[in-house]
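Example record

One chain of 71 residues, shown exactly as stored in the release files.
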Amino acid sequence: MTYTFVWRVVLDHLGYILGGLTLTALVTVAALLIGLLIGLVLGMASLSRRPYLLYPTRAYIEVFRQRRRRS
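Predicted structure tokens for this chain:
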């Protein structure tokens, strides 16, 4: 069984491939910025002395951190 890769198909669809690559890069940058913003807000709230900010922030961090504890 032999297979010959046809580069012409890739070249014919290069616009779609580059469009997908561009979209992937944009989604990646957006996710990084949103994650950074959430992290900064939670970090600042965890430094607060106000219980209505501190306790929900600590709970959120503990739930999503999922740190394993050794027995």
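Notes: Residues 45 and 53 are 6 Å apart (CA to CA).
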